[in-house]
Design goal:
By secondary structure, the chain is an alpha+beta fold. It is built from two helices and five strands. The strands form two sheets. A three-stranded antiparallel beta sheet has the order 3-4-5, with no helix packed on it. Helix 1 runs antiparallel to helix 2.
């Protein structure tokens, strides 16, 4: 019986990963801030429930405190320092730093 449960769990995680990728595509292509913010909240909710993550990083970060899509130039600032990238949320002011091991 436990093998069956494990397969179902892997299927749910695969479906969650696919949903996260679709939502990330919507968030990336949308010009409307409210649609980007709603998809960012859904990405965080699905990721927390199923343990699924985005596979690759492609330019848009999500603020973990206010749960909004941080689009560079629209509602966040990006600073590139030596060997690190620093994102600052324009709404709450929280910073996210990606260090020297970051590959983008």
């Amino acid at each position: 019986m436990s093998g069956r449960f494990r397969r179902r769990s892997n299927l749910k995680k695969a479906l969650a990963t696919e949903a996260i990728n679709d939502l990330h595509h919507v968030m990336k292509k949308s010009n409307e801030q409210s649609l980007s913010d709603a998809s960012a909240r859904l990405i965080l909710r699905i990721g927390k429930k199923h343990g699924a993550r985005m596979k690759n990083y492609s330019g848009i970060a999500i603020c973990r405190s206010c749960k909004l899509a941080m689009v560079p130039g629209r509602n966040s600032t990006v600073r590139i320092r030596s060997k690190s990238i620093k994102y600052t949320c324009g709404v709450c002011g929280r910073t996210k730093t990606m260090g020297p091991s970051f590959r983008g």
